[in-house]
């Protein structure tokens, strides 16, 4: 729908001549200005497209070189029109193309639990403790897409060159054809990590390709800053949690606390700023009692701990 047609639609709407579908489109546009209620937003690419379109349209104005308030008025009108088209597109996608919630299977794991999930194409996802994933009941589109809403998962993807496999997290999208890889995306963690065991994995941020990974490469993405790095790791250690083992290498206090929370349901805390800066390298066995694990933790830096309910205070 171009701008001229949409202007006619607005005229019909205000004259009370629009049909129900047309009314819904215009109502969606008006509601889009209430961003928090509608949830409609533009990504960086869409904003850049709007900026370029505005420049092009201003340049096409015959014999007019607007300036000052006149130029700003024209700019606002063009921007509003282009924003309208973007919102209409989002509306059409939301109403007509987005899968309903009942088309998904929702799988969640409890503290200390690991679950194997067989996907519609026969691929396998292993879910670590305290994780949540949404899986379509069928892969009937051009791609195979799942949503790791929280936590960590290891994927063994069946190769299909005609149907790419995608894993969506809050911050990133991981795309493969057929491979095995680990995605760690806990809300309490400061970063998202993607580690490749076999094959090749592409990591995207919206439409931007950030990296293409090979076996034993790990992509780390800082959620707060948007910075990232690629390092060489032992991919076997990164997926060992499937067998009940967790390897921590120079882990921060918060990273250790997250593992203990997911494994045992206890909250590791400290009031000592020196301890807060400690790093921890160790191997945790999920079938080992929590007391034995805490004794191992305190021995690394000669600290002590005490339990207060579900809280473990390191001092």
TrEMBL record:
Annotated keywords: Membrane, Transmembrane, Transmembrane helix
One Pfam match: FecR
Domain of life, source organism: Bacteria
Ranges that cross the membrane: 74-95
FecR protein domain: residues covered: 107-201
GO molecular function, one term: sigma factor antagonist activity
Segments forming domain Protein FecR C-terminal: 247-314
Matching PANTHER family: PERIPLASMIC SIGNAL SENSOR AND SIGMA FACTOR ACTIVATOR FECR-RELATED, PROTEIN FECR
Protein name listed in UniProt: DUF4974 domain-containing protein
Organism: Chryseolinea soli
């Amino acid at each position: 729908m171009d701008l001229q047609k949409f202007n006619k639609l607005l005229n019909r709407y205000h004259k009370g001549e629009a049909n129900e579908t047309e009314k819904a489109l215009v109502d969606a546009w008006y509601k889009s200005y209430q961003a928090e209620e509608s949830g409609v937003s533009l990504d960086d690419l869409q904003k850049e497209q709007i900026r370029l379109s505005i420049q092009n349209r201003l340049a096409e104005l015959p014999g007019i070189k607007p300036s000052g308030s006149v130029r700003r008025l024209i700019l606002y009108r063009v921007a509003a029109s282009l924003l309208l088209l973007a919102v209409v597109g989002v509306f059409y996608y939301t109403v007509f193309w987005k899968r309903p919630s009942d088309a998904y299977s929702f799988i969640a794991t409890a503290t200390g639990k690991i679950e194997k999930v067989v996907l519609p194409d026969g691929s396998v996802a292993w879910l670590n403790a305290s994780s949540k994933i949404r899986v379509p009941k069928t892969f009937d589109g051009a791609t195979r897409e799942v949503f790791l809403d929280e936590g960590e998962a290891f994927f063994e993807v069946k190769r299909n060159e005609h149907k790419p496999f995608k894993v969506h997290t809050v911050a990133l999208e991981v795309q493969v054809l057929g491979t095995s890889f680990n995605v760690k995306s806990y809300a309490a963690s400061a970063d998202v990590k993607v580690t490749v065991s076999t094959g090749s994995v592409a990591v995207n941020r919206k439409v931007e390709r950030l990296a293409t990974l090979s076996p034993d490469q790990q992509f780390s993405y800082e959620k707060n800053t948007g910075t990232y790095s690629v390092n060489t790791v032992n991919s076997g250690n990164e997926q060992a949690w499937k067998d009940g083992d967790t390897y921590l290498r120079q882990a921060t206090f918060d990273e250790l606390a997250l593992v203990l929370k997911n494994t045992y349901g206890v909250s590791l805390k400290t009031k000592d700023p020196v301890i807060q800066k400690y790093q921890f390298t160790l191997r945790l066995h999920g079938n080992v009692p929590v007391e034995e694990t805490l004794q191992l933790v305190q021995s690394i830096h000669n600290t002590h701990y005490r339990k207060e309910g579900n809280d473990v205070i390191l001092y």
